[in-house]
Design brief:
The chain is an alpha/beta fold. The chain has nine helices and eight strands.
Length: 259
């Protein structure tokens, strides 16, 4: 496979500390990865994502505060985040990864998460950037906020129903699908894969997490996208390469990039 775009990756993660340069210089380009977005989760990882864009021509960055990072963020985190946006790097193409995560009890309170989410949606609107959204066990609040603020962007690692997907599409959102479609008992993700409009589908990994079958439990990387793309293609009755091409075309449209 060639011409693969990974719309959601974390190569700034410590999981790649031992071989990051080899992975990004050799492994990915030699396996058809033509572009990827490294998504910040904290101020530190957002800066690291930006630094990767300076070293690798095919890497773009998103900066943002993940809901799991809100508790540990300094009081002036929003100011620092905006400072990154003010620098106007041509390869800073989105605000993310932002959103809500109600899975872990130790995360910030729901109210604090919603405040941080809304603040970053407003920041994205101010700088006319799309958003990359994380939604885990928070579908109701996520939808309520999106219906109010109407950002353009993608629901990454989408875990909702076909009905929710259709509501998101009506709002103008894109749907990111990755390794979860290959998991055992992945009936709903596969139904979503079959139903999402062709112009709203994005391919992604969330690497180093969410490795697809048959790589479950291993460190994920962008070369594994064809495994999930093959499942999506089967659900859509098309070829894997057609799914990969949709991933590129839609990413370029949403994030205003050209490859």
């Amino acid at each position: 496979m060639n011409e693969i775009f990974d719309s959601h990756a974390h190569y700034d993660d410590v999981a790649f500390d031992s071989d990051r340069e080899t992975v990004l210089t050799t492994l990915l380009p030699q396996n058809g990865i033509c572009g990827l977005i490294d998504c910040g989760a904290s101020l530190k990882s957002s800066r690291k994502a930006l630094s990767l864009t300076q070293k690798y021509s095919y890497i773009y960055a998103a900066v943002g505060l993940h809901p799991e990072e809100i508790k540990e963020a300094p009081e002036d985190w929003l100011t620092e985040l905006e400072q990154m946006l003010k620098e106007k790097s041509s390869k800073l193409i989105a605000v993310g990864e932002i959103g809500l995560d109600y899975h872990f009890a130790e995360n910030a309170s729901k109210e604090d998460q919603k405040k941080a989410f809304i603040a970053q949606l407003e920041l994205a609107k101010k700088y006319d950037l799309p958003v990359i959204i994380h939604d885990r066990e928070a579908h109701g609040d996520t939808m309520e906020i999106l219906q109010k603020y109407h950002p353009r962007g993608v629901m990454h690692c989408f875990s909702g129903s076909v009905e929710m997907m259709r509501e998101l599409v009506k709002l103008g959102m894109y749907i990111g699908l990755g390794g979860a479609v290959t998991f055992k008992n992945a009936r709903v993700p596969v139904e979503v894969a079959a139903a999402v409009p062709s112009d709203r589908l994005l391919t992604e990994t969330d690497c180093p997490y969410m490795a697809p079958v048959p790589f479950r439990g291993k460190r994920c990387d962008s070369t594994m996208i064809p495994k999930s793309a093959a499942v999506i293609a089967q659900a859509r009755n098309c070829t894997t390469q057609e799914v990969l091409q949709l991933g590129i075309k839609n990413a370029c449209r949403l994030f205003h990039i050209s490859l």
